[in-house]
């Protein structure tokens, strides 16, 4: 995705390693908006290890788009996303983990611009779904997404396991400790028999 501008001349680009302090600041602003500041565990170091950046040797797990007003170095917002997969459609897609536009820039098309870029990226990869979750109490966002024609998935309920320590893995899995089948598989080609 290259730099491009809207009729209002906003610039959208992939984040680089140098943008990590800005990404972290936006994550903290989003968490404050969602009244969940104490839940943020991200650090600059952890973002550098886990995000994907153009030209980086590290593949990362997620990518970040940033949007800037024309002739401004202040970031107006971000879209943090990753690829997912639909088994029923046998096609890739994009999952938007977080969309955040700073309050001073809301209502000016920056969020719509980020979503448009992600919709185009979904098509570019041959994807058939572009999806995200919204907090039920976030009425401004729900109205915004409804206005875009996004479909509410009311029949689905989100599920998550946050405790992936030894006990959490044991509870979710089959009760066994130690190396799992996928770890054995990854070592299979290295002379270790997979069972």
Task: Please explain how this structure is put together.
The protein has six helices and six strands. The chain has 195 residues and is of the alpha+beta class. It has a six-stranded mixed sheet with strand order 1-2-3-4-5-6. The longest helix is centred in the middle third of the chain and has 15 residues, at 110-124.
User: Which range does the strand content fall in?
Assistant: 15-25%
How many DSSP H or I helices? 6
Helix content bin: 25-40%
Radius of gyration: 19 Å
Quickly describe the structure:
It is built from six helices and six strands; from the N terminus they run ββααβββαβααα.
What descriptive keywords fit this protein?
195 residues; alpha+beta; 6 strands; 19% strand
Please write out the topology:
Blueprint: E1 4-5, E2 11-14, H1 20-33, H2 44-50, E3 63-68, E4 77-86, E5 91-101, H3 110-124, E6 129-132, H4 139-147, H5 166-172, H6 181-188
